Amino acid sequence: MHHQEFMYTKNSGALNQLTMQSRIMSEDEAKQGKKSDWYRVNLSGPVRNFPKGICNLKYITTLVIKSNNLERLPAEVGNLTNLLVLDASQNKIRELPLSIGELVSLRALILNENKIEDLPSECGFLLHLRHLNLQSNPLRQSIAQYYGDGSEQAVRRVIRHLMDLYYMFR
C-alpha cells in the first residue's frame, strides 16, 4: 500500500492538504458507484468548507477532518455508510446534520472541542457506536446527563435516549 499527498491552495479557505491512502479515483468514477480502494481520508486545514466530493467515496471507513475551521458537516456525509470512524474534533461545528443517523456502521464518533450543544435524535440509529467523544462542547443538560463520563455504557445511554426522542416526536 502506498501513501499519497495532494496539495490544493486556491484560496485561504480552501483545502490545503488532502492525504489519501491507496489508489486515486475520479469523482465521476465515485458517482458511478465504482468501488474505490480508499479506506482512510485525512483532511488538514485550515478548511472552512467540507469538500462534498468526499461524500461520494462510499467505501471509506475512516474520515479524519480534525483541527480545521469547519462550522458544519454537509447532509451528504450520510452517504458514507461504510464509515466506521468519524473524527471531526477541534472544529467549530455547532450542529450535526440529520443524515448522521445514516452512518449505521459507525463505531467511533469523535466530536470533542467543537460548539455542539445537542445531538440530533437520528443519532439514535447509530447502534454500533462504541466510542463517542463530546468533551469540551457546550452540551445541553439533556445530553450531558446521559453522556456522563463518556464510557461505552454512557454511549449506550445516549443512543437509547436519542432513539426514544426520535420515536417520540415522529
Summary keywords:
globular; 3 helices; leucine-rich repeat; repeat; Leu-rich_rpt; alpha/beta; CCR4-NOT transcription complex subunit 6-like; 7 strands; 170 residues; 7-stranded mixed beta sheet; disordered N terminus; Leucine-rich repeat, LRR (right-handed beta-alpha superhelix); Leu-rich_rpt_typical-subtyp
Word description of this protein:
- Helix content is 17%, strand content 16%.
- By secondary structure, it is an alpha/beta fold.
- The protein has a single domain (3-168), classed as Ribonuclease Inhibitor (Leucine-rich repeat, LRR (right-handed beta-alpha superhelix)), CATH 3.80.10.10.
- Pfam families: LRR_1, LRR_8.
- Keywords: Leucine-rich repeat, Repeat.
- It comes from Cichlidogyrus casuarinus.
- This is CCR4-NOT transcription complex subunit 6-like.
Q: What is the CATH class? A: Alpha Beta
CATH topology: Leucine-rich repeat, LRR (right-handed beta-alpha superhelix)
Sequence of strands across the biggest β-sheet: 1-2-3-4-5-6-7
Instruction: Give the percentage of residues in beta strands.
Output: 15-25%
Q: Fraction of residues in helices?
A: 10-25%
Low-confidence stretches: 1-17, 20-24
CATH H-level superfamily: Ribonuclease Inhibitor
Question: Which series of helices and strands comes N to C?
Answer: EEHEEEEEHH
Biggest β-sheet strands, sense, barrel: 7 strands, mixed
CATH architect. name: Alpha-Beta Horseshoe
**Overall mean pLDDT score?**
83
Radius of gyration: 16 Å
Find the structural class using helix and strand composition: alpha/beta
Protein name: CCR4-NOT transcription complex subunit 6-like
Pfam family, one: LRR_1
InterPro entries: Leu-rich_rpt, Leu-rich_rpt_typical-subtyp, LRR_dom_sf, LRR_domain-containing
Keywords: Leucine-rich repeat, Repeat
